[in-house]
Amino acid sequence: MTLLELDGLRKEFGARHRTVAVDDVTLTVHEGETLALVGESGCGKTTLTRLLLRLLEPTAGTVRFDGRDLAALSTAELRRVRRQMQVVLQDPYSSMNPRMRVHDIVAEPLVTHDPAARGRRGRAATAQRVAALLEAVGLDPGIRDRYPHEFSGGQRQRVSIARALALEPRLVVLDEPTSALDVSVQARVLDLLAELQQRLGLTYLFVSHNLAVVRQVADRVAVMRRGALVEVGTAADVFGAPRHPYTRQLLDAVPVPDPRRARRTRDTAPPANAPRDPAGPDRPADPTGQVR
Amino acid sequence: MTVTSPVLPAAAGTATAHRHTVLRTLLRNRLAVVALAVLAVLVLAAVLAPLIVPYDPNAQNLLQRLQPPAWLAGGHRAHLLGTDELGRDMLSRVIYGTRVSLLVGAGAALLAGTVGTAVGLVAGYFGGWPDRLLMRLADVQLAFPAILLALAVIGFLGSGLGFVILVLGFTGWVSYARVVRSEVLSLRTRDFVTEARAIGVTDTAIIRRHLLPNVTAPLATIATLHVAAAIVAEASLSYLGLGVPKETVTWGGMLADGQLYLGTAWWVAVFPGLALMITSLAVNLTGDALRDVADPKAYRR
């Protein structure tokens, strides 16, 4: 069943020097799957997630969540849809308000959407729910009175995940959820995400530039380059038989931990950084830093 | 599978423990302790002035004009800090002057802080035309010398304590607005604001919950600077005879009166000047300490 549908989605930035950040993207995400969105830095991945979360207005095209066009929704209806799609962002150091305690961070979605969670009567229930969420992501509920700066990157990312799950969403957008973490912590967070997906029937849109991670988690893969999708397919197809030359290039760029195999691929395949377009190596940095 | 987190010691931080750390950090800064003590004494003096002054600050005694402080030759124990040109007791007058100074300082900072913070939050968060409009207003305000504006307004509307606070408050909002706006500009691109918007948190809640608490540290600093500046500005206005009515005792007014006698009776001008200096220094030092404490990362250890 289709949960999320992007149709001809396009986003341009700048009036005089037009930059096309997302170029006519059409993509569907099915309920219960993990769709990985891969591509190099600045290819428009992040802008695409901002568009589908409706944090940015698209220049053209539509986003449908559960069959409903987000652009056509009233403010109140949009808020209701937002309950069902949550986001975990890349940088666990800037994704939390330094002045809020863990409890308030995790409870924020509850307090925002559930009038019963507010006020004196709701407080006990909210506290219980927060404790359960923290436990679900493998954290000690006793940390709820602490501030984010007291935690490591991995712990913060768990708090972020707990917050994203607070409203029992259907879709979770994971924007490079592990790229700021070191490898061992990364593996544990990925395990946690897989476990939660199974238990709660979540749908993941997993944005990453790390193909090793993607291979591990994705059911389907969408490859993005310069704002446009160049290839979409099952993980097995994309990794096993990439059709687009850019996908092949990306795959070749993955470091191989076995030196003998690495040498073999280096001899046969063209170096990953060689066939660059004359138009310039990279697109200008993603301007979504100034969202809003 | 259950993931247990290996690096989590038992939770020690409770809300009360947290408040204790704030207090302890504040107390560890010796200078801050002294400044706070001085401020406390000043506030007490202002509140209790009628009870603790030895004389009515406006009672004249022309037979005892320009008496030096008690410890100088010719001084008398009856007037510890001496008397002014009309024979009024200096100590009583300095104590009474605290009232106006603190009231004006706190009132002006509160007023300017409220207006400026609101303007800065709105301009920074919403951007676009509200931002352009508000910041142009701020430029216009800045182009006017504050004391001149104060003179003009008081000249038109008449003098009085309320007007002085109003004028100093409404000339000081720009610095709050600018600082808050620039903080907000950098805060609103942070991921936690993006996430809050994705969750569906309303703009008002984002401003109240995510932006305002994160601008308190710079706010505390500007507010204390402003308190000190407003106290001095009030003194300047009083010195020019434009502050509050003549019968209200102010340090600025005393300075103005004492200036004539600087050569012969220095105490008439020096004591209110000293009081002014000590007050603004104490306020500034307290502000510095507050700023350090307001940052949750500062009291980690």
List keywords for this structure.
heterodimer; A: alpha/beta; Rossmann fold; 2 domains; four-stranded antiparallel β-sheet; 10 helices; globular; disordered C terminus; B: MetI-like fold; 69% helix; disordered N terminus; ATP-binding cassette domain-containing protein (chain A)
General description of the model:
- Chain A is of the alpha/beta class and 292 residues long.
- Chain A folds into 2 domains: 1-84 and 171-245, P-loop containing nucleotide triphosphate hydrolases (Rossmann fold, 3-Layer(aba) Sandwich), CATH 3.40.50; 94-166, no CATH class.
- Helix content of chain A is 37%, strand content 22%.
- In chain A, strand 7 (171-175), helix 6 (183-200) and strand 8 form a beta-alpha-beta unit.
- In chain A, helix 3 (102-113) packs parallel to helix 5 (153-165) and helix 4 (119-136) crosses helix 5.
- The relative contact order of chain A is 0.17.
- Chain B has 301 residues and is mostly helical.
- Chain B has a single domain (39-69, 79-294), classed as MetI-like fold, CATH 1.10.3720.
- Chain B is 69% helix and 0% strand.
- In chain B, helix 4 (128-143) packs across helix 6.
- Chain B is elongated and about 75 Å long.
